[in-house]
Amino acid sequence: MARTQGSHSEITRPRVRAAALKLFAEHGYAAVSMRQIAREVGLQAGALYNYTPDKQDLLFSLMKAHMDELLAACSERVSQGDAMARLRAFVDFHITFHMGRADEIFIAYMELRNLTPENFETIEALRRSYENHLEAILAAGLSEGIFDVPDSKVTTLAVIAMLTGITTWYRPDGRLSPEEVSELYWNMVRKVVGA
To answer: Where are the transmembrane segments (predicted)?
Structure first.
């Protein structure tokens, strides 16, 4: 099927991804058809396959792009100083990175069940890599004698879940600024790790 007049790959492919992200977040992956995605972008249904092989590839590419960006940004921002400084940097980074990305976060957590086993394995490996950043900080704090956590893995998962929870309630026009939110969460995380 011919491409819609005026459609260009460098313009249309990001629009396809943005439409899929929006629809998956609103309705859930299983409830969204390729025809709906095409309609959202203004393409004929068959033309959508010029930009993606299938719906599974769209879901996987959205999740992988999110995780790749998260890991690259984390590596840049959370690598300097002692364990306390790195933990503070991790908290600030995680909160600022996730603000305004509610759709990406929802899909990254809630749509894992819809990945093929191979794609699930890839995304899980990326998630573990991110968790390892924080777990390494906690382990360093334990060895420096500044943190007191009974189980670094469980604490890692609890802290990440707590920080990621901001996507469910934070609004840019709300009463707290991003800096105030980060400071509140930093105080909570310090208590969680026994600092």
So the answer is: none
Tokens 């992988």, located at residue: 64
All domains of the chain, ordered by start, with CATH?
9-52 (1.10.10.60), 56-192 (1.10.357.10)
**Distances in Å between the alpha carbon of 84 and those of 114, 138, 141?**
38, 9, 7
Tell me the backbone φ, ψ of residue 156, rounded to 5 degrees: -55, -50
Q: Which two tokens stand for residue 169?
A: 């309630």
Which pTM value belongs to this model? 0.85
Q: pLDDT per position in the chain (195 positions), as tens?
A: 444 455 466 788 899 999 999 999 999 999 999 999 999 999 988 888 888 889 999 999 999 999 999 999 998 888 788 999 999 999 999 999 998 888 898 898 889 999 999 999 999 999 999 999 999 999 999 999 999 999 999 999 999 999 998 988 888 888 999 899 999 999 999 999 998
28: Cβ–Cβ under 8 A, 6 or more apart, which residues? 110, 111
